[in-house]
Amino acid sequence: MPAVADVSITAQDFQRLQLHSNLRRYRFALHVCALLHRCLLPDQGTGQWRFRSFTGDEREMGELFESFVRAFLTQEQRVFPKVGRTPIQWIVDGDSNGLLPGLATDITLRRPGHAVVVETKCYGKPLVQRQFNRAAALRSKDVCQLVAYLANFRRAEEERLTGVLVYAVDQPTLPWTRMRLLGHEVHVVEVDLNQPWTKIDRCLRDFVAGLSDVATPSPDLGGRHDLSWVV
Questions:
Q1: Lowest mean pLDDT: which of 25-34, 91-100, 102-111, 163-172?
Q2: Is 228 part of any domain?
Q3: What CA–CA distance (Å, rounded) separates 33 from 124?
Q4: Range of the domain at 138
Q5: Is the pLDDT of residue 56 over 70?
Q6: At what angle do helices 58-76 and 197-214 cross, to 10 degrees?
Q7: Partner of 5 at 20 to 30 A CA spacing, among 47, 66, 148, 215?
Q8: How many domains are there within the chain?
Q9: Mean pLDDT throughout 15-35?
């Protein structure tokens, strides 16, 4: 196609693309192209291109895991008909002068009368060691982030709100933990990625099945009820 000129691609080009329903089959190919664009780097010695591995990059892996879980929940669960991200405005008095950071959930599941805020994390190990030989605990920034979302999430008066932390791990360390924070149910769940795909699929389907239970209020919340295990 000699009449078609080469175009220098930027990351913003991928963000500007809008795919309607007739073109959705191209979505996966475009995501692969965007990944290659981010990870292909020129070699200063040879001038050739090499692929930068993103498996050791927590940010890249975190974004990939978030997208994967969101797509899985969109396709595989039927408890909550609406799945997507939700921007959140701070509940604040006075003029913040734009100093407050932006808030947006990784995943929000909604159905009449109930919303679930899902935050995905990809660290390999969700727990870190605390000082003075105390037991390992969740990272405080993870819990504080979820609490900020729950505290500022705008919902109908009768709408129930649930929070979930989903960790991608390479070795299981926690059981499914259920507690109550700020009057809301909060769950901590692990997905072990260091196993065959069939078992990962089974783990995610168990998580989806657990959402049916999350959608039903329970006065008896098993697990720990305090923040002594957060660091």
A1: 25-34
A2: no
A3: 26
A4: 57-214
A5: no
A6: 60
A7: 47
A8: 2
A9: 79
List residues bridging with 121 in a β-sheet: 167
Residue with tokens 């919340």: 221
Classified as helix, coil or strand, 30 is: helix
Give me the amino acid identity at 50: R
pLDDT of the residue at 225: 35
192 and 109 together in one domain: yes
Q: Is residue 148 part of a domain?
A: yes
Angle at 139 between CA 92 and CA 59, to 5 degrees: 85
pLDDT reported for residue 50:
73
pLDDT score of 219 more than 60: no
> Does residue 205 share a domain with residue 177?
yes
Torsion angle defined by CA atoms of residues 96, 152, 77 and 74, in that order, rounded to the nearest 10 degrees: -10
Same domain assignment for residues 14 and 64:
no
Q: Positive or negative, the Cα torsion across 180, 158, 78, 105? A: negative
Task: Return the C-alpha torsion angle 206, 208, 212, 215, nearest 10.
Answer: 130
On the question of pLDDT at 40 being above 80, the answer is: no
To which residue do tokens 């978030």 refer?
Answer: 66
- Closest by CA to 38, choosing from 59, 17, 21, is 59
Same domain as 204, residue 99: yes
- 229 within a domain of the structure (yes/no): no
Identify whether residues 206 and 156 lie together within a single domain. Answer: yes
Residue 211 in tokens:
């959402």
Contact yes or no for 172/195 (Cβ under 8 A) = no
Mean pLDDT of 41-62: 71
